[in-house]
Amino acid sequence: MRFCFILEEKYVHKPMPMVIADQLEQWGHEIEVLQPYVAVTSLTDLSLTDYDAYVLKTVSDGPGLTILEAAEAVGIPTINNSRAIRLVRDKAVAAAYGYARGLPIPLTYFVGHPRALGKVPHEIYPVVVKPSNGTSLQDIHLVRTPEEMAALSLDETTHYLAMHYVENTGFDIKLYVTGQEVHAIAKSSPLHDSVQEEEVPVNREMLKLARRVGQVFGLDLYGVDVLETPQGLMVVDINDFPSFYGVPRKVASIAEYILHAAYRCRRSRERKVLSIQKQKVLRRQESKLVAAQLMRYNPSVRRVQMN
């Protein structure tokens, strides 16, 4: 099979996703790497359809997403799909979309400019303030009072979320979904002291939540940041194609899933073509043509009686 890996500039010197491409190549599949920031990509010939699937680990508003959408437009499967990526990349949209579909997400407000943070309702304090594009962990702040909020210094070119802080165990749990497998990794929270980062057992609640997030957003490879709270698990972030840090056997697991997904799509296309070939040739219902202005004079034309 042939796969196109779209490599954004940010990931040129990082292992993910090229370790996945290398694994597929070792298994005998053909890999092409497309670097959209240094290449021109033809959109009007058949070159987009030369692949069985496209794979993208994107950055926010990166050029790779446009190429991914173009591939989808001509019927080539993509991992992840572009709509899912766009839904989770804007954290404000992800929060609204997920909450509306029953995901356990804390009360969240969108703030178009830092000066508007003072209007966050007092009753939802303490709040976590973070960029709505989710680009920097250093810009995540726990604010306990309106006075602390007034003293907060933030980038005025960035939009923010103000999310109600829910009491929790003091560390994050990353649920990583590598296609079919779900892994849980305990990780240090940017709001608390560091903890030993290690894999923990995936319980039924974690499995159900990870599955539901994938169904809601249509993601194949993704991560869900959750907190263990007295009210149960709460979702505080969703990421498409994360680093999967700490996940054992992640390379083989992700490569296997991409391969199987491409095979499924290929078989589906082949079945559709076969089904069309088996159909009878389409024929016109009436072989005689009549000029429109002469229709009412033609005695052989059947007329519909309107009641």
CATH level-four homologous superfamily name of the largest domain: ATP-grasp fold, B domain
- What's the number of domains? 2
User: Sheet with the most strands?
Assistant: 5 strands, antiparallel
User: Order of strands side by side in the largest beta sheet?
Assistant: 11-10-9-12-13
| Helix segment tally | 7
- N to C succession of SSEs: EHEEHEHHEEEHEEEEHEEH
Low-confidence runs of at least 5 consecutive residues: 276-293, 301-307
In angstroms, what separates the terminal alpha carbons? 60 Å
CATH class of the largest domain: Alpha Beta
Relative strand content: 15-25%
Mean of pLDDT: 86
Structural class: alpha+beta
Examine the secondary-structure arrangement and name the CATH architecture of the largest domain: 2-Layer Sandwich
